[in-house]
Amino acid sequence: MALPDPFDDPRGALTALFRRAVEVADPVRVVPGHLPERPAGRLVVIGAGKASARMAEAVEQAMGPCEGLVITRTGYARPCKGIEIAQAAHPVPDAAGAAATRRMLELAGGLGPDDLALALISGGGSALLCAPATGLSLTDKVAVTQALLASGAPIGEMNVVRKHLSAVKGGQLAAACHPARLLALVISDVPGDDPADIASGPTVGEGSSPQDALAILDRRGIDVPGAVRDALARGSSVVAPGDPRLARTETRIVAAPAQSLAAAAGMARAAGIDVRVLGDALEGEARDLARAQVAAARGLVPEAAAAGRPILLLSGGECTVTRRGDGVGGPNAEFVLAAACAMDGLEGVHVLACDTDGVDGAAEVAGAHAGPGTLSAARRQGIDPLTALRTNDAHGFFGAVGGQVVTGPTLTNVNDFRAILILPPR
Questions:
Q1: What is the pTM of this model?
Q2: How far apart are CA 281 and CA 116, in angstroms?
Q3: Rounded distance, CA 287 to CA 414, Å?
Q4: What is the CATH number of domain 31-255?
Q5: Confidence class of residue 262 from pLDDT cuts 50, 70 and 90?
Q6: Among 19, 69, 264, 352, fewest CB within 10 Å belongs to which?
Q7: Share of the chain residues as helix, strand and coil, in percent rounded to the nearest 5
Q8: Helical H runs in 271-384?
């Protein structure tokens, strides 16, 4: 794939870099090298996440038909001959996900010491693997998930709460597979690539406590059903890291944000662009991170002009959005909208931010692009960008001005991809 000339087609160049980042994280490319030999007993494939169906497809391409069950986001299914592909809602769990999770736990509970469970785990699994803890209902879980999403809590805090309200997260899926051996192949979508944070660590021991979860809810001012607080007060069934039921569990990260950023950086450098990678694990409010990166880009404009070649700022990680209005907009689109406002028509600077799973927030849009003419185009239509930012309506804004990036399901998930291109005068 050739990179379009960034001077002639800056949006095309940034989009090509994003597609390169997604391409190298395709499960069909990264899963086969980590597959085990078939065991003496049964090989059962389980798992959940936005990439899990594609991972299951990769397993069957390499090993032939297998038995098992994975849960993916609705619309992300892939054809498999033996592995059942269940589809459920994301980011808010639903009854389909809860029912499929119960079947998965039953399947895991039937394994013996000669069997091997192959767990395919990727981002999105926290919502898709939904088995409420004793005393809780699906309605309780939905209420907590919605409140956490609106609060702006980082993914690590969200997952601590969700683990202690679950019968499958925090190592409990691995415990259900005991005494079988378990190999977890994981695609990371979290800053730091900690397997305990990916899909809320269903195969990884958990060191936090229910009191930690309560403290997060209180610190964030989150109002939850009384049954939730009662459940946390009683304790939880997460599995401690040293639990003997995890002794035969192995976890491998098969794809991560750093690899995707490196691939995009290599593609840009090959085209003569000066690349600065700001990090693959950046977190924070999308609008705050955008303003900081635009300030950095503004400071590099003279350097790009003096050198006579473009400079590219790349970053990954996971932004958050604290809902202040009733608009439609995910963290990537909000990053780009805040960046466009901060750029305010700055010549030669273009920005793109997209989620590598193809879904930014709850919208079927990967993200957005903005350039020097974005704000003036909006104002010609009578659209106020600051109002859109204030009401969290970034997707509505970019839908109106033609700045949306739509990919459809990418079948992988290595978190957010952000790029700011600084072009010298020509």
A1: 0.94
A2: 33
A3: 21
A4: 3.40.50.10180
A5: very high
A6: 19
A7: 40, 20, 40
A8: 286-307, 331-343, 374-380
